[in-house]
């Protein structure tokens, strides 16, 4: 799960939305929308922020 601790450490500004994306077997996937463009993030479970 993408926690607020993870979100705070991302090198992005003006995050408007974080949406989980399904389909991954190992990693958790998220679409991160900012004021300027979207990003795609993979998170490996078990790693601290």
Task: Write a compact overview of the structure shown.
Keywords: Kinase, Transferase. This is Kinase, putative. By secondary structure, the protein is mainly beta.
Classification by helices and strands: mainly beta
Helix fraction bin: 10-25%
Major beta-sheet overview: 3 strands, antiparallel
Strand order of the largest sheet: 1-2-3
Beta-strand content? 35-45%
Shape: globular
What is the alpha-carbon Rg in Å?
11 Å
C-alpha end-to-end distance: 11 Å
What is the H/E string?
A: HEEE
Tell me, rounded to a whole number, the average pLDDT. Answer: 89
Number of helices: 1
Poorly predicted regions: none
Secondary structure: number of strands: 3
Counting structural domains, the number is 1
Features:
single chain, 1 helix, 3-stranded antiparallel beta sheet, 49 residues, mainly beta, transferase
Give an overview of the whole structure:
Keywords: Kinase, Transferase. This is Kinase, putative. GO terms for molecular function: kinase activity. It comes from Lacticaseibacillus paracasei subsp. paracasei Lpp126. This protein has 49 residues and is mainly beta. The chain has one domain. The chain is built from one helix and three strands. The chain has one helix at residues 4-9, and strands at 15-21, 28-34, 38-43. Strands 1-2-3 form a three-stranded antiparallel β-sheet, with no helix packed on it. The protein starts with a helix and ends in a 6-residue tail after the last strand.
């Amino acid at each position: 799960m993408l926690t607020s601790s993870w979100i705070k450490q991302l090198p992005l500004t003006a995050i408007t939305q974080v949406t989980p994306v399904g389909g991954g077997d190992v990693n958790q996937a998220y679409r991160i929308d900012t004021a300027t463009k979207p990003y795609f993030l993979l998170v490996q479970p078990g790693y601290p922020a």
